[in-house]
Amino acid sequence: MAAETIDISTAMLTEPTALGDWLLVAPVGLPILFGAVLVMVRHETRLHAGLAIVGLLLTLAANAALLLQVLADGPQVMTMGRWLPPFGISFTADALGASLAFVATLVASVCALYAMKDIGATGRRYGFYPFLMLLMAGVGGSFLTGDIFNLYVWFEVFLISSFGLLILGSTDRQLDGATKYAILNLVGTTLFLTATAYLYGTFGTLNMADIARKADAMRGTGPMMTLAVLYLLAFGMKAAAFPVNFWLPASYHTPRIVTAALFGGVLTKVGVYALLRVLVMLFPVERGELSGVIAWVAAGTMVLGIMGAIAQSDIRRVLGFVVISGVGVMLAGLALGTETGLTGTILYAFHSVLAMTALYLLAGVIKELGGSYSLHELGGLYRAYPAMGAFALVLMLAVAGLPPASGLWPKILLVRASIEAGWPWLSFAILLTGLLTTIALGRVYILAIWRNRPSDVSADAVAGAPGYGYVSMALLCVPIILLGVYPEPFIRVAEAAASGLLDASGYIGAVFPAEAAQ
Amino acid sequence: MEVALSFVVSVFFAVAIYLMLSKHIIRILLGVSIFGNAVNLSIFTAGRLMREVPPFIPEALPTPEVATANPLPQALVLTAIVISFSLFAFLLVLAFRAYQELGTDDTDGMRVAEPEGEPMPPLGY
Asked: Which spans are transmembrane here (chain B) (predicted)?
């Protein structure tokens, strides 16, 4: 037959997928599988929490194994559908994607634990846990995919799950917040798709490794700057960068506190991850030309974000603005583009995922014990619950960037990098943000926890057993303090991730092994 | 062909942005929908546009004989249509529910999550 004369081995995989390669899709496949099972048993709500926690712990184990493998052997690739890259969709895990996926799954597991208390039978009936699993599938897919259109698909997967989580409860505030969140995030992802259309028209490929190796050749002819700016706008919107960040304070304080914790910890970091991946790895020259713009965006995001936090009296809204200011700090490293700067950004992303989730959970515990989120009504918690005071102190030190908690080292790296790059004003902005964060959260600490209960508020609102909340916060405080007192391994991972972004040859070589061998 | 489609895409973008700048949720949603279609058309234009040349390869040859239509943008657009359609359906229901609960579809009037005239945060204790 004529077909046998055509050698397909150059275009298609002819060998079965190695068993170890399945590890790459496990962080996505496991949450989808467990999400499907949870939908099947949707009436047996008492099974939900256990199944979801088991699923997330398995996902966490797969992520940990993948991260260890990536750190030992470099980027890992699995290509779908037998078509070789750039035609098949490649899942590509490098140190950046694998480590962020691991941290995100870690906080999701803690959130699932906290939700055992926070989400009642009705919330479980409405599908909290399936949405949670599918959200994590989308987040994991975003971190691990090596194809830019596939990244869009994963963005939409976690976006639709986040809509579901956001309106769980259907109160007026949630519907209002979710409308703004949904429309603006949909516009953001559509902008991302616009950029992807131009990218495909320019390069004729959607595989990130393929784009990275062709970018130099296209620089003279393609509309590279247009692409870089469109991606900056689209992912900046996703990451809540000033001035396209106002959907976040409008919506993040409305859902159940555990949902807010997960969103505040994980979702903006997916935007930061996409910015790093696209601007640093695919368009390094354009990122260099845009660095001044990105630096101003970063400074605006962090300083104006934290000023917004100072102006709020609802703890959840304070935290929404703190999330924004953290995004600004991460963008500072993107603006610098040096290895130290990117290491700082990635380390700050680890810290921010852990610390923001823990702070939202703390807000949940405060609400449970103090009966309110409002700084006008809270008070007297320190005397009744000294352990919570200790948790709050650690977490607020972490977010403010003070020792012994996790925020210190990434900020030191970023300040050093911006001074080295000759931008002392950017390091000033980072330090000013640290000071303002200390003021904003110190005020929350003093008003909500330290002071006596206001006399016009009845004292018997203080009630409840914070068991789950304490366990969840303690689980998150372990890595937060570890990152503060023994940062070496974390910095090494972040450095590996940053150098992998700056020099994509390892990433490209993993996707195209035959050409790398030549 | 590309020129004509580029013109259509630009009109779609203009209409979409005009509608999205409106204050009413339903007009914003129509804008978002048109925005999605503009992007789909631009993905389509970004591939090769061909009339009546299906991307078939004769059995004996490794590559097609003539320039053919590019099937990949069609696959991409199909995916994007399905996703944007489902999100649009969700948004319509969400907007309807929000209209029912809040009694308005004017974004200036939707101030439940961020109430106007909030009191100052406590300035002392």
From this structure: 6-21, 28-46, 75-96
Looking at residue A6, the DSSP 8-state letter turns out to be S
Q: How many of the other CB atoms lie within 10 Å of CB of A229? A: 17
Average pLDDT over residues B55-78: 83
Kindly provide the ipTM of the predicted complex, given to two decimals. 0.92
- A25: which DSSP letter? T
Contact A187 B113 (CB under 8 A): no
CA distance to A52, A257, A380, per residue, from A105 (Å): 12, 18, 34
pTM, 2 dp? 0.93
- Cis check: omega of the bond before B54, within 30 degrees of 0: no
**Mind listing the pLDDT tens digit for each residue in A448-507?**
888 887 776 665 555 666 778 899 999 999 999 999 999 999 999 999 999 999 998 889
User: What gap in Å lies between CA A271 and CA A330, rounded to an integer?
Assistant: 11
- DSSP conformational letter for A314: B
Question: Is A198 close to B59, i.e. CB distance below 8 A?
Answer: no
For A187, nearest residue in chain B (alpha carbons): B32
In this structure, which amino acid lies at residue A33? L
Cα distances (angstroms) measured from residue A379 to each of A214, A319, A443: 59, 18, 12
Q: Any idea which residue has 């000013």 for tokens?
A: A432
